[in-house]
Amino acid sequence: MIDIRSQFPILTARPGLVYLDSAATSLTPTSVIDAISSYYGTLSSNVGRGLYATAEETTSHFEAVREQTAKFLGADADEIVFTRNTTESINLLASVLEDRIHEGDNIVVTALEHHSNFLPWKRLAGRRGAELRIVPFGEDGSLDLQQARGYIDSRTKVFAFSAISNVLGATNPVAELIRVAKETNPNILTVVDAAQAAGHSHIDVREWNCDFLAFSGHKCFGPTGIGVLYGKEAILSTLPPYQVGGGMVQDASAEETAYKDSPHRFEAGTPDIAAVFGLGAALDFVEEVGIDAIHGYESTLATKAVALLHETFGNDIQVFGPTSTRQSGIVSFTLDGIHPHDIAHILGEHDICVRAGEHCAAPLHRILSLPATARATFSIYNTEEDVQAFIEGLKTAVNLFRT
Fold it and tell me: Which residues are catalytic?
């Protein structure tokens, strides 16, 4: 494997940093930073507008990243819409689907969802007089295929679910869930939140047969400000624009407006061009390391951490999600007698970065009857020494509160 840690300048600038919050935002490799800097330093022009050399080169590179992103997902370039993040991707989709939802219809989500894949559908259902149905999850965080089938019927318009839970770290059987959904209702639209999966596990939208998929660049080693919405071209081409303005029209007058074909009709105004360049470099990084190597390494570290948590703290700790081998780098837990916020604060004093709270998944925490959990996320740049530092930091927190 290539030397990973040397490619992340923050780990050189802060040699004592133990960064375990990658599910919120991953660290950024030098190649991504360089790609952003190169855009501003050598091009710094808009896309799809200028006829001079730097503008044409900018547009060419921008569209090349679209092609690259399509290949990364197993899609075609005209099925890739650039947004700001997963949240905007799903809100865009919920907005343009509004005319297809009617009173008496229903939208199905799961109790695992991040707010970004819950609230847009809840609001859409409320606006249109539709029912919001919520599929429960099992003790290990998994979704039961037959149980999910029971929530879908002929009036179900959308089934939205995450590929990997951002709290429990459980990996859902995406292809099987979509197969079951479409067997029950062939006209259903399936939406996959891949924010925790992109760059960390294999994705193929053709194999999955999903109608839509969303992810964020900043969770897969890219910059903030860039998201992706994949949609089947046959569906995208029938949907109205999300926003209107420059860059997404062929012609406009007082009488008529002709919009561009997808995906450009969904990209009004000047995009975050530098972030798109950065996304391309991030996808290069993922390809260089290898998606299977990333997934295997992160899962192995998380599995080791869970084993040490149980070995060290016994019945005082509760770890949520899969009980044995972890399917991702995400580990959420509670320690008896210590609030998760206090855990995060004490670890932070030792430069160990974890997340504490509801992780933008309030419905899930309500089901678990918990005000919050602590979450450690292990990524490709973490080490076994980071795992040990994490355990020692938790020991310090326990000793402090017991004293």
Answer: 360
Assess whether the previous peptide bond of 263 is cis (omega < 30° from 0): yes
DSSP 98: G
Query: CA angle 82-88-231, nearest 5°?
Result: 55
Tell me the pLDDT tens digit for each residue of 251-287. 988 889 999 999 999 999 999 999 999 999 999 999 9
Q: What does pLDDT average to over the chain?
A: 96
Of 161, 261, 276, which Cα lies nearest the Cα of 213?
161
Instruction: Domains for the chain: give ranges and CATH numbers.
Output: 5-20+291-402 (3.90.1150.10), 32-287 (3.40.640.10)
Model confidence pTM above 0.85: yes
Residue-wise over 331-348: b if at least 16 C-beta within 10 A, else e? bbbbbeebebebbbebbe
User: Could you tell me the two tokens for 173?
Assistant: 């059987």
- The size of the chain, in residues, is 403
Phi then psi dihedrals of residue 260, to 5 deg: -70, 165
